[in-house]
Amino acid sequence: MIRLERVTKSFPTSTRPALDGVDLAIDKGEFTFLVGSSGSGKSTFLRLILKEESPTHGTVHVAGKDLSKLSRWKVPALRRSIGCVFQDFRLLSNKTVFQNVAFALEVIGKPSHVVDQVVPEVLELVGLEGKAKRMPHELSGGEQQRVAIARAFVNRPMILIADEPTGNLDPNTSIGIMKLLDRINRTGTTVVMATHDAAIVNSMRRRVVELDDGKVIRDQQRGVYGYGG
Amino acid sequence: MRAQFVLSEIGIGLRRNLTMTIAVVVTTAISLALFGAGLLINRQVETMKDFWYDKVEVSVYLCGETSQRASCQAGPVTQAERESLLADLESTPEVEDVFYESQEEAYAHFKEQFEDTPDLVQNVPATALPESFRVKLRDPTQFEVVAAAFDGRPGIEEVEDQKALLQPFFAFLNKLQWMALIVAGVQVVAAALLISNTIRVAAYSRRRETGIMKLVGASSLYIQLPFLLEGVLAGLVGAVFASGTLVALKSIIIDGQLKPAFAFTAFVGWDDVLWVLPWLFITGILLAALSSFVTLRRHLRV
Question: Fold for domain A1-81+160-224?
Fold first, then answer.
């Protein structure tokens, strides 16, 4: 589903590359944790998959497509097949829960009868039935993240990217979010999650890829957060 | 594409940026009004040319008692010279019509023209005014041909083109037109920069929305269209104000002030104004669309 071949990404402002010769393949339906200290290259990795950046060397394949050969006007189609969740939720504060999720469908031109049908379904899936008319600031952090997950998943993407989705949440709430991501993974969606949360990684026992200074230093099936932690 | 969604985004953008939007509208309106004024002056020159060239004649003044020119050294024009000149003028292909004006007729005409200043009339003797042929040309621009053929012939004191009397006025209007167009050009640049800046501010203040739109895979068109239409809408409103200004100029200044004061000449009509207005809209929309487009390409790339 996602394949990186000898990928190096350098930024002109830094002498050290953010990613350095990374070879990695993630299969369809896999749940992968991306761990490593800040600045280890996790975010760059995720941005490459979304083609927000292009690699300096090497190739990135997503869903069978070589991203370097993907013309710019086809990038939106790529991103429709990838859902994204972030630490800061990135909800629109002036829109209701329903409108926030519907926004993802509206901006890709889905007709309103589809929106009216699909949004309640996905809100139910993430456990927010009955809260469609709430504003984001009326919700708890966990609930806000569920809205963000609903928005990321409402298009039924093949890949879900989560960049520290539990970074702003307490441990109990984090467990709820992880259960939700696990459920989404079981529908066949490939999940890539960058995290610093050792407890979650250790309890899930999924594939762990550790990055350090832009290099893959560990790739374990059913791994833990780290030898030290 | 959902029109309602795009329209509501435009509304949000314009309201958030109200001061900048007003600045864009005002600058665009001024620049377009000046541009329109330039075009109208151009039409005015054409209108006056049509009006006056129909009326102007070539005057062929004949030698009188007091003429000093070399061609008049033989004394006043003789009857034979007069007849041969008339025959030659009439047989010149560029000439449409020839009238003869005697000294008496010229003096009567002169007295009539200056009846308000009797002092002047009293001081000019009846014989001071030369007799002349008044020549009407088929094409008023063909003066040089006639002048070359007749100027300097015995019995002719001077060949004068009345059209030349209008030239300073046309030259003045031409300068006015260029001044209006140059100021309009400077204003167009200012308007383009303002539109560009407004779009940039709008794009920045909505970076959250556009960031999410990018992530969920909205096309560039979908992301940029509200911004583009915002710019175009501002340009359009500017064009409406500019049109209003031109209509006011026509009805208040031209029809209300100039026409009664200068009744002897023609002014641009409403058809000329109607001819200018579409150009204001085309220019306004193109200006806004182009400057928005260039800005968006730089600041809202997918």
Answer: Rossmann fold (3.40.50)
* Inter-chain touch B216–A112, beta carbons under 8 Å: no
Q: Which of B161, B183, B215 is the last residue of a domain?
A: B161
B275 lies in the same domain as B207:
yes
For residue A197, give the nearest of A35, A31, A45 by alpha carbon: A35
- Ordered by start, the domain boundaries in chain A are 1-81+160-224, 91-156
d(CA A70, CA A79): 12
Q: SS3 of A161, please?
A: strand
pLDDT number for residue B302: 58
Q: What does DSSP assign to residue B141?
A: G
Q: Give the chain A residue whose CA is nearest to the CA of B221.
A: A73
Q: Six-digit token pair at B107? A: 């003096």
Ramachandran sector of residue A90 (left: φ over 0; alpha: ψ -120 to 50; beta: rest): left
Query: Is pLDDT above 90 for B40?
Result: no
Residues in B touching A90 (Cβ below 8 Å):
208, 211-212
Same domain, B295 and B190: yes
Residue B156 domain boundaries: 57-161
3-state secondary structure of A169: coil
Cβ-nearest to A106 among B5, B214, B302: B5
Statement to judge: residues B85 and B120 lie in one domain: yes
Residues B47 and B177 in one domain: yes
Same domain, B176 and B223: yes
Is the same domain home to B262 and B141?
no
B217 and A76 within 8 Å at the Cβ level: the answer is: yes
ipTM score assigned to the predicted complex: 0.82
The shortest C-alpha distance from A227 to chain B (Å) reads 35
Residues linked to residue A210 through DSSP beta bridges, in sequence order: A35, A218
Task: List the single residue in A with minimal CA-CA distance to B3.
Answer: A109
Q: Same structural domain for residues B21 and B104?
A: no
Q: Biggest alpha carbon distance in chain A?
A: 52
Query: Whole-prediction pTM value?
Result: 0.69
Boundary of a domain, candidates B161, B191, B214: B161
Same domain, yes or no: B45 and B171: yes
The verdict on A88 touching B (C-beta cutoff 8 Å) is: no
Q: Quote the Cα angle for B53-B55-B61, to 5°.
A: 100
Q: Per the CB < 8 Å rule, is A92 touching B208?
A: yes
Tell me how many domains chain B contains.
Answer: 2
Higher pLDDT, A227 or B154: B154
Identify the residue among B6, B215, B227 best suited for mutation to test binding to A, counting A beta carbons within 10 A and taking the highest: B215
Question: Which whole number is the average pLDDT over B257-282?
Answer: 88
Residues of chain A contacting B219 with CB distance shorter than 8 Å: 73, 76, 108
Residue type, A225: Y
